[in-house]
Design a protein that fits this description.
single chain; 303 residues; alpha+beta; Pseudouridine synthase; Archaeosine Trna-guanine Transglycosylase, Chain: A, domain 4; 3 domains; 10-stranded mixed β-sheet; 6-stranded mixed β-sheet; 38% strand; globular
């Protein structure tokens, strides 16, 4: 079984819990998730199976979309509702000031990962150090917030936002940073991931649904093909005489291209298919200087 399950992760499950359940349901060991979603969060969590596990990095590179509720006037140790309260502050709920503060985070900025996170420092996860009562200096990481929309004002102390952001963005840290900007502190009261790359909420299935489909031998209905993980790639089908070379990870010159669609210019990543239209791998398009020939070089073979 090769492909991706677009799972709706419910509250209370870790990402590893979801992997364990899927592994048991499909009775297959090669299963992996595509980026941690906190236990208290819910929503889209693509799960890769078989050959698709080699595409987890490509899926994680895609934009993420979230819906979060920000609670003002309170700061917590974890920057979300699960943490201990550090500080409370009185404040005036001012919609215009909230809008101004929120929209100020659109664009790229340096975000400091929270102590309660899976980021590793010297081989140890930050949350492990945090549980030991330690707090260490963390390097800021550049993240991009492509868009934030305030979807609901919920006075006296909350509002809801929709966010489109890059991988590596901690939404709870974004909520806490908004609180700092407003001068009253804040934490993330709830989080729903509505999309991860090309995988969205409207096609996600629960673990219970997956179990039911497994019992009736209908898993293929929700097992998405490998191509679903690869957004915006060009596509090249090679001639039969070059298919073996493609399978063996060799570079393929342009005169062996049978079909090409999308952007296949030098520097672009493309999907390589053999003459039977089977996806073989991800390739980089290169224009060789010595002979001025266009070719595709393997980046990742998926066989």
């Amino acid at each position: 079984m090769d492909g991706i399950f677009n799972i709706y992760k419910e509250k209370g499950f870790t990402s590893h819990d979801v992997v364990a359940v899927v592994r048991k349901v499909i009775q297959q060991k090669k299963v992996g998730h595509t980026g941690t979603l906190d236990p208290d969060a819910e929503g889209v969590l693509p799960i890769c199976v078989g050959r698709a596990t080699r595409l987890s990095e490509e899926i994680m590179e895609g934009k993420k979309q979230y819906r979060a509720v920000v609670a003002l006037g309170v700061t917590t140790t974890t920057e979300d509702a699960s943490g201990e309260i550090i500080e409370k502050k009185e404040f005036e709920f001012d919609s215009e000031k909230i809008k101004e503060a929120v929209h100020g985070f659109i664009g790229s900025y340096e975000q400091i990962p929270p102590m309660y996170s899976a980021v590793k420092v010297n081989g140890k996860k930050l949350y492990e150090l945090a549980r030991e009562g330690k707090e260490i200096e963390r390097k800021a990481r550049k993240i991009t917030v492509f868009d934030i929309k305030i979807t609901k004002m919920l006075p006296p102390d909350r509002f809801e936002i929709d966010i489109v952001c890059s991988k590596g963005t901690y939404v709870r840290t974004l909520c806490a940073d908004i609180g700092k900007k407003l001068g009253c502190g804040a934490y993330m009261a709830s989080l729903l991931r509505t999309a991860s790359g090309r995988f969205s909420l409207d096609t996600a299935v629960s673990l219970e649904t997956l179990k039911g489909l497994a019992q009736t031998h209908q898993l293929q209905r929700v097992l998405l093909p490998l191509e679903n993980a690869l957004e915006g790639y060009g596509r090249i089908v090679v001639a039969k005489k070059a298919s073996k070379l493609l399978h063996n990870g060799g570079k393929i010159y342009e005169y062996f291209f049978l079909e090409k669609t999308g952007d296949v210019s030098p520097g672009k990543k493309v999907l390589g298919y053999d003459s039977s239209q089977a996806l073989v791998g991800i390739y980089q398009m290169v224009k060789e200087e010595q002979n001025n020939r266009l070719c595709m070089k393997p980046l990742k073979i998926l066989l």
